[in-house]
Structure formats: structure tokens, C-alpha cells
Amino acid sequence: MMNNNKKQEILGKQQKYLFPNHLLYYTTPLPLERGEGMYVWDVDGRQYLDFFAGILTTSVGHSRPEVNEAVREQTEKLIHTSTLYPHEQYVNLAEKLAQIAPGDISVSYFLPSGSAANETAVFLAQLHTGYQEIIALRHGYSGRSSMGMTLTGQASWRIGGTRISGIKHALNPYCYRCPLKMTYPSCGVACAQDVEDTIRTTTSGRVAAFLAEPIQGVGGFITAPPEYFKIVQDIVRQYGGLFISDEVQTGFGRTGNKWWGIEQSDVQPDIMTMAKGIANGFPLANVMTTPEIAESTRNAGLTISTFGGNPVACAASLAVMDILEEEATPENSAKMGQLLRDGLLNLQEKYPVIGDVRGMSLMQGLELVKDPVSKEPAPDAANHLLQSTQEQGLLIGKGGLYGNVMRIAPPLITNEEHIEEALQKLDRALGDVQKAV
Ligand SMILES: Cc1ncc(COP(=O)(O)O)c(C=O)c1O
């Protein structure tokens, strides 16, 4: 192999100089070197079709020239200001986001990560309502700060235990493994009622907010029935709480035909958090809310974010927004997502290891099981499939509480040919895995 020494050198330094708890994909971790559009290349020069987009982040593809150009221009002008000084890029981005946000959500606070955005959203809800307690969902993922890990509903992502009090977790709408052992739609979305039961039995009876992802990302692309969030919002309002939609994975058109995942449920959130796809990989996140809720922060004390709203990241994001509006539109996500989903459903008929195909548009999950009747989770098959897809030259993700869900979420610029190529590679990899189940 051409660059084998380079690969060994990178992996050697990773092992010696980085924390050992970095989660790395593949039996031998994969050092990447460059990217272009839908493809990335490793240090050995091997090409991969990227259907995970660096965890749903390179929304408009790798090394997109318009984004690179915007970054170059801004880098030459001014790289950093801190939030002490307003600048053109971040006010323009805030204005742009206000145009595509639902309802009267129009006021932003930029931050460097999704974890920081969720933390800020929770403080904002507490400040506005005067209540402290928060309801989150089991299997959810909210970040790696103390608040993020406590909001998260999966033990393995809560390193060192939870530290924040007043956060409670309701049952999640996991239809494939219904926590109430019921079946949709005859269940009448009974799981939504658990939000009320949780408030009445585990809180003071007044809550600051309910926080959830419209599709649970790290949780394994768990997708609620369409009525679920509306029922939950009505309940949460009765107990004084705001609705926080974590759009870190579902935002920017990924779920199809709408800009935001929560719009699929016809729910008007009070606060939204976003990150990942917002700037194609530049570290940027945002909390958005209504002018009325934002007003609660006016005399609440001092706050800054050193890297929040960084001019280069905001310039990248503005270029991303143009591409999303003109080319990688929410309509394109819906159209391409349908093709992808149809292909995955065909693969499910061929390979019984696929117990469930779920998600929306360009956010599709495959839950792998030992057999479709017992539905026993098959984490070994998921590891095998991850490895086999890499060998086929395809990058996809993995997740779920049981480690058995494949996450397929390409950049939003994906076209028919990319989807066809991904499905062929998946087909070959699944053939390999099915033999071993
Ligand atoms: C839904 C969701 N919220 C929040 C976060 C945290 O974002 P970050 O890793 O940028 O802190 C993530 C990260 O994967 C996420 O998927």
C-alpha cells in the first residue's frame, strides 16, 4: 500500500496522544485525507462513497468550491471577533435562518457545538418559564457536556454518570420495539401519555421544557408516529413547559420537503437547536427562539461565547444556505430519500437480517436482528456490516441502544447515481453479513 507508513504513523499517534475513549469506526480505524463532493479518500488513496457525511454534517458535500471560496475570502478579511463585536456574517446568517425557521422563531444565539446549543436552550426555557425541570426522551442523544449527557437517554453515552438534577426521561415512541408492547396505530399513540405520567409522578408538576429530537439520531433513527409530538406538546403546555426541538441531525431539509424535522409533525416549537449540517463541517451551532422568549434573557446576567458565531464559520454557513436553497433543497431530499428508501425496502425483502427500515427522506435506518420474528438485536451483524461496507468503499454509520442500527444519511446533494451506487454496495455487503448470521 502506497501510504501504509503514513497510516501507521497516524494510528500510532492517535493511540499515544489522544484519549483512549475516542469512539473510532472499523477494526482498523480509517484515517481520511481528502474529500470531494460525495466522496472521500483515505491516506492509502482508496475512495469511499460517503453516506454518513461525517455524522450528517457535510450537508452540501466535501470541499464544495462555493463554501471554500466564502471561507477563503472571510479568512483573508477577519477570522475572529468573539460575541463582543457584531459582524456582517453572523447578523446576515441570523436573518437568513429567521426566513426559513417556522412561525415567529427568528432570534439566534450562535455557539460552537450542538452540546452548547442544547445547554443554552435549557437555560433559556428555565429563564423564561421560571421552572427548572426538563422532560427528555429515553434513547435520545443531546451531547457530551454534563447537561448533554444527563439529557441523553442511553447509559453508554453518560460517561461517569449523570450530574444534573431535575431531568426526567419519558418512554420514547419506538414503534419497532414498543415500550408498551402495543402496535401502531391501534395503540392510539399511548406512549405520548407517558410524558404526562412522567411529569405527574417524577417532577414538581411544573416543567420548563420538553426537549426531543424529531428523529432520534444516535438512538438509531427512531421515528415517531406523525401525531406523537402534537399530543406531547399539548401535554407539556398544560404543565407550563416549552417545546425544544433538537434539529441538530434533522435540520436543513434532511427529512424532506420541509426545512425542519419538527415541521413533519405540524408542531410549532418554542426553541430550536441546530448544528452539524449548518456549516458543512465548520464548528457552528445555533439556538433559535421567538422574540418574546429571547426577551427573557435581556436582564438575566452576563454571557459571552468566544467562538460563537465565528465569522469564517458563518461565511461558510451562508454559502451552504445558498446551495441548500438552489440545489440540495428539501424537495431534493424528499425525492432522493424516496429512492433510497425504496431500495432499502427491497433489500429488506432479500435479507431477513434487516428487521426494520425507518426514518424520513435522507435519514434512513436499518435495524438488524437475528431473525425478524424474535427481533433479537444483532449487534455483531451491525459490526460486520459496517466493516463489509467499508471494504465495498461505502461509509455509513451505526447507532441504537443495542448497537444494531445502521444509519444512512448522505450529503443533501446526493443524486440518483450515488443512491444506486450505495444500494449496490450495501447489497453486496449485506450478502456477506447474511451468510454469517
Ligand atoms: C441530536 C443531537 N444533539 C446534540 C448533539 C451534540 O452536538 P455536538 O457533538 O456538536 O456537541 C448531537 C451530536 O451528535 C446530536 O446528534
Low-confidence stretches: none
Approximate strand percentage: 15-25%
Return the average pLDDT rounded to an integer: 97
CATH class label of the largest domain = Alpha Beta
Q: Architecture of the largest domain, according to CATH?
A: 3-Layer(aba) Sandwich
Roughly how many Å is the radius of gyration? 21 Å
Number of strands: 17
The dominant shape is globular
Q: Could you name the CATH homologous superfamily of the largest domain?
A: Type I PLP-dependent aspartate aminotransferase-like (Major domain)
Tally of contiguous helical segments? 13
SSE class: alpha/beta
First and last CA, distance: 32 Å
The sequence of SSEs as H and E is: HEEEHHHEHEHEHEEEHEEEHHHEEHEEEH
Helix content: 25-40%
The number of domains is: 2
Bound molecules: pyridoxal-5'-phosphate
Widest sheet: strand ordering: 4-12-11-10-7-5-6
Main beta-sheet annotation: 7 strands, mixed
CATH topology description of the largest domain: Aspartate Aminotransferase, domain 2
In short:
This protein is an alpha/beta fold and 437 residues long. It has 13 helices and 17 strands.
Features:
2 domains, 17% strand, 7-stranded mixed β-sheet, alpha/beta, 4-stranded mixed β-sheet, 13 helices, Aspartate Aminotransferase, domain 2, 437 residues, globular, binds pyridoxal-5'-phosphate, 17 strands, Aspartate Aminotransferase, domain 1
Structural overview:
With 437 residues, this protein is an alpha/beta fold. It has two domains: 4-59 and 328-436, Aspartate Aminotransferase, domain 1 (Alpha-Beta Complex); 66-326, Aspartate Aminotransferase, domain 2 (3-Layer(aba) Sandwich). It has 13 helices and 17 strands. It has helices at residues 4-17, 53-56, 65-77, 88-100, 114-129, 146-151, 193-202, 228-238, 291-295, 311-326, 330-350, 379-392, 416-436; strands spanning 32-36, 39-42, 47-50, 107-111, 133-137, 167-170, 207-212, 215-216, 222-223, 242-246, 271-274, 285-289, 354-360, 363-368, 394-395, 397-399, 405-408. Strands 4-12-11-10-7-5-6 form a seven-stranded mixed sheet, sandwiched between helices. A four-stranded mixed sheet has the order 1-2-3-15. Strands 13-14-17-16 form a four-stranded antiparallel sheet, with helices on one face. A hairpin with a 5-residue loop joins strand 16 (397-399) and strand 17. The two termini are 32 Å apart. The structure holds pyridoxal-5'-phosphate. Pyridoxal-5'-phosphate binds at residues 55, 113-115, 118, 141-144, 213, 217-218, 246, 248-249, 275.
